[in-house]
Specification:
Elements: E1 8-11, H1 17-27, E2 31-33, H2 42-45, E3 50-55, H3 62-65, E4 74-78, E5 82-83, E6 89-91, E7 102-104, H4 110-113, E8 115-118, E9 123-124, E10 130-133, E11 138-141, E12 149-158, H5 162-170, H6 187-203, E13 209-212, E14 220-223, E15 229-233, H7 243-253, H8 260-263, H9 277-303, E16 307-311, E17 333-337, H10 341-348, E18 355-359, H11 375-390, E19 397-399, H12 404-408, H13 411-431, E20 440-446, H14 469-479, E21 483-489, H15 490-496, E22 504-509, H16 524-535, E23 539-544, E24 548-551, E25 554-556, H17 559-562, E26 564-566, E27 603-605, E28 611-616, E29 619-627, E30 630-635, H18 642-655, E31 666-667, E32 672-677, E33 682-687, E34 693-698, E35 704-709, E36 714-718
Parallel strand pairs: 1-2, 1-19, 2-3, 3-13, 13-16, 16-17, 17-18, 18-19, 20-21, 20-22, 22-23, 23-30
Antiparallel strand pairs: 4-12, 5-12, 6-11, 7-12, 8-9, 8-12, 10-11, 14-15, 24-25, 26-27, 28-29, 29-30, 31-34, 32-33, 33-36, 34-35
Helix pairs in contact: 6-9, 7-9, 10-11, 10-14, 11-13, 14-18, 15-16
């Protein structure tokens, strides 16, 4: 059933025709694309392949933007904290920002749109008590309270698109013009965007797919005075703010936003912050506007018999694919960067599109493709982690990005990508419309729910952070495991309860974050609903500081379900007696060592019947507890690894009271997995490592056999009357 061509997109560039033809043949590519900084020759466009062309909606048009600088995109920024030592305080509010990127907005009334806050008391300073020196870019408070801290929240114009700025600095583009982003909410910009697209479509008859990169508003990416990243949030809505937007919001929602609703004490409504009602309303407002404008552009593209593709990155704010309005865009496809299994599922699971596409790593950039480096190592690691998730939900297409001339200089890399593309096609042809076996249904519970499907604990897309890897490992493990995964918000549970088909709830995160829940756990409907559900047979897994908010003598608000709580120092006078570990437990079977990542300390058992599985350094790191007919499981953290995936799966089955079903379509070796597809009576045993592995394979009836696998190998088998 294997096809040797198709479902692969190849980046190309000028003066690279013959090499492009060669790699199209070797990789079986049926589509060609340009990249940021490259163009396709006319001869390349005439090759037998679909042509993707990168299209920038609200940047890369300086000839227009320079004539309408009043329509540059805006954002709210906050100054540093400044301490008053007397009654007058001068604040250089641009201090620490990169002035090639932003400048203060003096076009609109600063007294109306800016805000000065006494951060010691939280009170807003009356505008009559401050004034702005527009020449010096300073704000002067004339009636400050000595030894109080103050900040200025100010409107700024964004003079340089953050992605182009990043590429400019990284690739040393020298005198290349700085691309000015403009706001489609503004009248001239809105008309220009639509007129230019019409003209562009007529002038690009060889383009088959318009690759929007992306649409209007960039995720929040602000640089410091050194030209380095200062603040980056892949989900941030900061760059969608404008006076026009704030006025339209007030008209639509019936109340006005404060600058503080956007700058959020300097946290800028990071995805880790539990969202306020005002911020959720603002997101909803931006999403509706963005989707309506996208729809008109997509209709224009379709009118020229071309497809519209959205890049999941850069200017994607308001176009979130798991948002409730996204289906109205009419977009044909979404493409995004695949850094691991989690990001693959984030793309592959997107609804309401004809196809999804993943850009695999490494990008063909000089930071990887240089003399002495072996890009095959990164490519192999990327493929192995992504393939796990692919077996659960395959992308429709894969591809690469960057400068093809760089990759071409590495023959071993070219050979390896040929193997990847062939293996991808063979997998896709077998399972793309086939539902894989799932032993459990798991719901990840946090403040964001479905909107952040496969996107929890990200700061910047796909990047490692010390404070998050202990939790992001949960999603990475689930991305390729035999479970159905859904995402619930606290509001979902409060309004509608827990879906009947859910076996286990997972709540993971640090205290006070959106992912643990913070003050959300003060809602008695939320806690009562989950308690009742677990008591009647449900499973609940808490990781890190789950359900954490100090209230009424508890820190973990579902401590009774979990059987453990965390010592905050308030009850040190109360002895903690239950520290003896169990001799054996289903969860820890075959586990030789533990890795809880950054871990959580000072967790103790509440009662004697709590099953302590791992206790060290005065703290419980792994435990279980019965709660009526249900069970709670506590973990101190779960970084991704093959061993921790096995630990999580055992915990899930135990919490669900389904231990007897664990050895169904299962591999005993944690470096291997079994993926079964009952509808086509096939299964495959996969080696997820670059080393030889031997494993017992348990079939649908529990029958097992031993198999040896070469590095990275997959073995497909037919079966009958199993499972």
């Amino acid at each position: 059933m294997q096809q040797n061509k198709g479902r692969v997109t190849l980046p190309s560039q000028q003066n690279f025709l013959e090499e492009t033809k060669e790699l199209m043949e070797r990789w079986g590519a049926d589509a060609l694309r340009d990249s940021d900084g490259t163009k396709l020759d006319e001869e390349i466009k005439q090759l037998n392949a679909k042509v993707y062309t990168t299209y920038f909606v609200a940047r890369s048009h300086n000839e227009f933007a320079e004539k309408h600088l009043e329509e540059m995109q805006q954002l709210y920024l906050m100054s540093k904290f400044n301490t008053a030592t007397g009654n007058e305080l001068t604040i250089a509010f641009l201090d620490g920002y990169f002035e090639e990127q932003v400048e203060a907005d003096y076009i609109h009334d600063v007294k109306k749109w800016w805000e000065v806050i006494d951060r010691t008391t939280g009170e807003v300073v009356d505008p009559v008590k401050w004034q702005v020196d527009k020449v010096q870019n300073v704000l002067i408070i004339t009636d400050a309270i000595p030894w109080h801290e103050y900040t200025v929240s100010f409107l700024a114009y964004m003079k340089w698109d953050p992605t182009q700025m990043y590429n400019h600095i990284t690739n040393d583009w020298g005198d290349k013009p700085h691309e000015i982003p403009f706001d489609v909410r503004q009248p001239h910009s809105n008309q220009f965007v639509k007129n230019y697209l019409q003209k562009w479509l007529k002038g690009n008859p060889d383009t088959d797919v318009v690759r929007f990169t992306t649409f209007f508003y960039h995720f929040t990416l602000i640089f410091n005075n050194l030209g380095e990243e200062k603040f980056v949030d892949w989900f941030g809505y900061g760059a969608s703010v404008s006076v026009a937007a704030l006025e339209a919001f007030a008209e639509e929602k019936g109340y006005r936003l404060r600058p503080e609703d956007i700058v959020d004490q300097g946290y800028y409504n990071s995805t880790f912050r539990t969202p306020t009602k005002a911020y959720l309303d603002y997101m909803d407002f931006i999403q509706k506007f963005t989707v309506s404008e996208i729809k008109s552009l997509v209709e224009e593209v379709h009118g020229h018999d071309k497809e519209a593709m959205m890049f999941l990155g850069d200017n994607w704010i308001g176009a979130e694919p798991y948002g409730k309005y996204f289906k109205d865009t009419g977009i044909d496809a979404v493409v995004g960067s695949v850094g691991d299994g989690t990001t693959l599922r984030m793309i592959a699971d997107i609804p309401h599109v004809k196809y999804t596409e993943g850009r695999f790593l490494p990008y063909f950039f000089p930071d990887t493709f240089y003399d002495g480096n072996d890009p095959v190592l990164e490519a192999k690691e990327n493929w192995l982690t992504a393939r796990r998730a692919l077996m659960r939900k395959p992308l429709d297409r894969i591809g690469y990005g960057g400068y093809l001339s760089l990759a071409y200089k590495f023959p071993s890399f070219v050979d390896y990508v040929g193997k990847i593309t062939n293996e991808f096609r063979s997998i896709y042809e077998l399972i793309h419309e086939v539902k894989p076996y799932s032993g459990l249904k798991v719901a990840v519970l946090n403040a964001w729910g479905r909107l952040r499907t496969w996107q929890t604990h990200m700061v910047a897309h796909g990047k490692y952070y010390k404070q998050t890897y202990s939790y992001q490992g949960v999603l990475e493990a689930l991305s390729g495991s035999a479970t159905d995964v859904t995402f619930l918000s606290f509001d979902d549970v409060i309004k509608s309860g827990i879906p009947d088909d859910v076996d286990v709830l997972i709540n993971a995160g640090d205290a006070s974050t959106a992912f643990s829940g913070g003050e959300c756990w003060l809602d008695e409907t939320l806690t009562s609903t989950i308690r009742e559900w677990v008591y009647n047979g449900g499973g609940f897994i808490g990781i890190g500081e789950p359900t954490a908010f100090h209230h009424q003598g508890r820190f973990f608000q579902l401590a009774d379900v979990l059987g453990v709580d965390k010592e905050l120092g308030f009850s040190l006078s109360t002895n903690k007696h239950f520290t003896e570990t169990v001799d054996a437990h289903f969860i820890s079977e075959n586990i030789t060592s533990y890795d809880f990542g950054e871990s959580t300390d000072n967790v103790y058992a509440l009662r004697e019947d709590a099953e302590v599985i791992e206790y060290s350094n005065g703290s419980i790191h792994l435990s279980s507890s019965s709660y009526g007919k249900g069970r709670g499981v506590y973990m101190a953290g779960l970084p991704y690894s093959h061993e921790n995936t096995d630990l999580l799966m055992r915990s899930l089955y135990y919490a669900a009271n389904k231990e007897k079903q664990f050895n169904v379509w299962h591999a005993s070796n944690p470096y291997c997995e079994v993926h079964a597809y009952p509808d086509i009576k096939k299964y495959t045993v996969v080696n997820n490592s670059a080393e030889k592995q031997v494993t017992h394979v348990y079939l649908g009836t529990g029958i097992s056999y031993e198999v040896a696998l070469e590095p990275c190998e997959m073995k497909w088998e037919d079966y009958a009357n199993e499972g």
